[in-house]
Structure formats: C-alpha cells, structure tokens
Amino acid sequence: MTRHISILGSTGSIGRQTLEVAESCGHRVAALTVNRSVELAEAQARKFRPELVAAADESAAADLRLRLADTPIRVAGGEGGLLEAASLASADTVVTAVVGIAGLKPTLAAIDAGKRIALANKETLVCAGELVMARAKERGADIVPVDSEHSAIFQCLQGCRDKGEVRRLILTASGGPFFGKTRKELSQVTLEQALRHPNWSMGAKITIDSATLMNKGLEVIEAMRLYAMPPEKIHVVVHRESILHSLVEFVDGAILAQLGTADMHLPIQYALTWPERTAGPAVPLDLLRCPPLTFHQPDLEVFPCLALALDCARRGGTSTAILNGANEAAVGLFLDDKVKFLDIPRLVAGALDRVEAKPGGYDLDDIFEADWAARAAVHEMMR
Ligand code: NDP
Ligand code: MG
C-alpha cells in the first residue's frame, strides 16, 4: 500500500521519523511544511521531491524559494502555505506533526479536504477536540492517532464492536526525568536536566511537558476526545520502562495492551497503513531482554500540572484551551531560561484562575480567544 502524504512539521522529531517511515515503506511525499528550518527543509525537499514546501515564517519561505529555484518544487509561505499543504489534492493523508495550537487550523483544513489525519499534534485535540472530532465525523475524515499511548489504545480497540464493552482506558506515563523527586528537589532542577528524558527522544516542548507530567494530562484530554470517553474512565499509571504503551480494560475484566520498544516509527507507520500492517523500520521488542515491568500511582502533589489538566478535563468547555495556551507560554519561558521549573505549574494555575472559561457551545473564535487570554495572563504574571 502506498500513501501520498503531506507532513506538517517535517523538520521536527515526528516529521523526520515520518520521512524515515516513508522512505522505508515506499510512501510518496506530496508536501512538507516547516516553520524556519530552511536548511533541513531544502535537504528534505531535494531528497523526497514533494510538489509543495511551505514555511510558516514568510522570510524563511523567501529563502527556501531561492534555495529551490533550480527545482520544479513550489514554495509557499505563511499560514496560507500550511493550509495549502494540508489540503493538497495529490495527498491522501496528512501527518500533523506541528507543535502547539499552530496545528489547529491546518488540521481542520485537512479534515475539510477529506484527508486521513495521522494525528501527532495533540494540542489540537486538547484545545478544540469536540469541534475537530465533530468536523471529522461530518466530513468522513479518519483521525488515526500517532501519539504512542493513543496508538496503543487504538490498536487494542480494533476488535471492539461496542464501546460499552470498555470499562476504562489506562494511559501509561514514563514519569519523566524527575520521577521520585520531592517538590523541594524540583525547585532546583535545571533546563538541561529537564530536557534529558529517560526513554524518548522528542522535540523540546513535549520533553518539558513530560518532565512536568503535563504531557500525560494533555493525553488524558486527547484520549477523551479521540474515544469519546468521560475523564473518569481514563486512568494514568506510571510505568518507568515505557514498554506497555497503554491498555484497555473491558467489562469482563480482560485487559489488552500493546507492547513495544520506545520507538515512534511504529505508531507513525500504523497511522499511515491502518487497518493494514506492513513491515517497517521499527525495532521489535525482545521479551527475554526486557527489564521487570513496574507500575506506580502518579504523584499529583509533586506534579501539579497533571492535577490541573485532570481538573480541566472534568470542567470541559474552553478551560482546556486556557490550560494549553498557558502551558505553551510557560514552557516557552522555561525554554528561554526566563522562569524556573516550578514556575510552569504556578503560571498555568494562575492563568486558569484569571481567565474565565466558557462552558460547552463554544466555537473556534472562542478557542483562539481563550488561548490568547491565557498567554496574556502568563505574561501579565511575569511583570
Ligand atoms: P518538534 O519541536 O521536534 O517539531 C515541530 C515541528 O513543527 C518542526 O517542523 C517545526 O518547524 C514546526 N513548527 C514549530 N512551530 C511552528 C509554527 N508556529 N508553525 C508552523 N510550524 C511550526 O516537535 P515534535 O516532533 O516533538 O512534536 C510534534 C507534535 O507531535 C507535538 O504536538 C507533540 O506533542 C506531538 N508528539 C510528539 C512525540 C515525539 O516523540 N516527538 C510523541 C507524541 C506526540 P521548524 O523546524 O522550522 O521549527
Ligand atoms: Mg505520548
């Protein structure tokens, strides 16, 4: 099976691994998008020969246009360029691997164009999951998760004909680099330590989200939206070894899990080939070399970001967009070395207190307004 894919965020961690899967499995690349990484974008474009390359940053697009002037590859810029890549006629599948709410509009454009969505950009579902899922249903667009936990659940649910048979979803969390630490110890941790994830190599923002456990909170909300499950049916368990990627417990007590090495090639590939499976670059798990599997309760006091996210999951409405916007802003400040690690939950909690959330019945404008207000509240607290 050959897919024609547009990769939104091709220069990132998921984007680069998607290109490895495409090369290994023979999928064709229709479009690539980046923000500013022109050098890598040029190299990718020369190798994979897409029809279109788009750069969100206009000056990067101008640079790329010069770099690719000797090729027939079209270069587009700005938000319009991303939307064009997301809805390109020659693509059947769009891999959403942009980071943050910047992925929301292009994902909607891909849904409107009837593409399969291989969804890595979880912030889209956290901010506007109900709108996105409703739009996908209306347009008949499949959304197949790339996030490893959600892919595991998706795989476990393949034989399930009636959602009423599911008792709960169990998301596994690695616990990040600071598992077992006290709050006092966390007050001293550095950016460099936070960027050192024990099991996964990922982009900077999600690596920090994994260290605060916000990532798991975002994933609970992502799972709620993808599987139309109430938050009380979604549980989080810390599993340090990252071998069980997540589990589904059924009403008869059976628990199904998907196991594997910590390798994103497999969930990326499955999102492209589902419902089929093909050989690919993922390294299979060697059971005889596995460490013992351990499970722990997450510590919501030491990692308040998870508690904040679970609370927003219960509240619904635009609260999840406020949570996400504040977190993107706070993590951005931490990555710029402007705040300390424990300021991230403090700033997110402060934004949730300051910005009023709209309950259900919101539209896309409400989401962007909530996102903007949350970022403004974070910057206000920094004055
Ligand atoms: P990276 O930071 O590695 O890559 C992000 C990509 O998006 C880059 O191509 C970047 O371009 C582009 N980009 C960044 N900002 C913008 C913007 N404002 N507009 C347009 N494009 C932009 O992120 P990851 O690959 O780690 O993560 C991507 C998404 O996948 C996230 O939502 C993350 O939560 C999710 N995810 C990632 C996993 C992983 O293993 N990495 C696992 C599960 C989910 P440029 O290079 O030019 O900056
Ligand atoms: Mg994940």
Over the alpha carbons, how many angstroms does the gyration radius reach? 20 Å
CATH architecture of one domain: 3-Layer(aba) Sandwich
* CATH level 3 topology of one domain: Rossmann fold
Strand order of the largest sheet: 4-3-2-1-5-6-7
Shape: globular
Q: Helical proportion?
A: 40-55%
Order of helices and strands: EHEHEHEHEHEHEHEHHHHEEEHHHHH
Mean pLDDT figure: 97
Uncertain residue segments: none
Taken as a percent bin, the fraction of beta residues is: 5-15%
Biggest β-sheet strands, sense, barrel: 7 strands, parallel
The CATH class name of one domain reads: Alpha Beta
CATH superfamily of one domain: NAD(P)-binding Rossmann-like Domain
How would you sum up this structure, described in words?
- Strand 1, helix 1 (13-25) and strand 2 form a beta-alpha-beta unit.
- The protein is α/β, with parallel strands linked by helices.
- Helix 5 (104-112) packs parallel to helix 6 (122-139), helix 6 (122-139) runs antiparallel to helix 14 (319-335) and helix 14 packs antiparallel against helix 15 (343-354).
- It is built from 16 helices and 11 strands.
- The longest helix is centred in the middle third of the chain and has 18 residues, at 122-139.
- Among the domains are: 4-145, NAD(P)-binding Rossmann-like Domain (Rossmann fold, 3-Layer(aba) Sandwich); 316-383, Rna Polymerase Sigma Factor, Chain: A (Orthogonal Bundle), CATH 1.10.1740.
- Magnesium ion (MG) is lined by residues 147-149, 219.
